[in-house]
Write a structure and sequence with these properties.
Strand 1 and strand 2 form a beta hairpin. It contains 2 helices and 8 strands; from the N terminus they run αββββββββα. By secondary structure, the protein is an alpha/beta fold. The structure holds copper (II) ion.
């Protein structure tokens, strides 16, 4: 009897440690998944002849990540609003550029030097109070 309880204590200890480890890992995975979803929602993928998505509705203070998916023969893709107020650096394939929108407005971006493939993405930025009314 004595011998049995001595072997049982480390066994239960191991079960407890394993249980806590799984619980911790599951929690971290859920957190990471939630962050992925959030990040994916505000990412625009840049292709030669289209953006994905081609329109995005966000609120003031949101940061959009622009992710260049395709290689240009010379240099990369540069994004610019139609009124030239915002311009990205040159993005090589798989490079990203983030922009935080501080003013409520509609921004239409096109790729600089892409007369042969016109593509644009519209980012509609609303103030937080406007967004809440929806
Ligand atoms: Cu291109």
């Amino acid at each position: 009897m004595r011998k049995e309880s001595r072997t049982l204590i480390p066994l239960w200890g191991a079960v407890l440690v394993l249980g806590l480890t799984f619980w911790g890992v599951a929690g971290q995975q859920q957190e990471a998944a939630a962050q992925d979803v959030e990040a994916a929602d505000l990412t625009v993928h840049i292709f030669h002849n289209h953006f994905e998505p081609d329109s995005l509705s966000i609120i003031v203070g949101d940061t959009v990540r622009f992710h260049n998916m395709q290689e240009m023969p010379e240099g990369g893709h540069i994004l610019m609003t139609d009124d030239s107020s915002i311009e990205s650096p040159e993005l090589d394939v798989d490079q990203t550029w983030e922009h935080t929108f501080e003013e409520a407005a509609t921004y239409k971006f096109h790729v600089v030097g892409h007369e042969w493939a016109k593509a644009d993405v519209t980012v509609v930025v609303r103030s937080a109070s406007t967004a809440l009314q929806d």
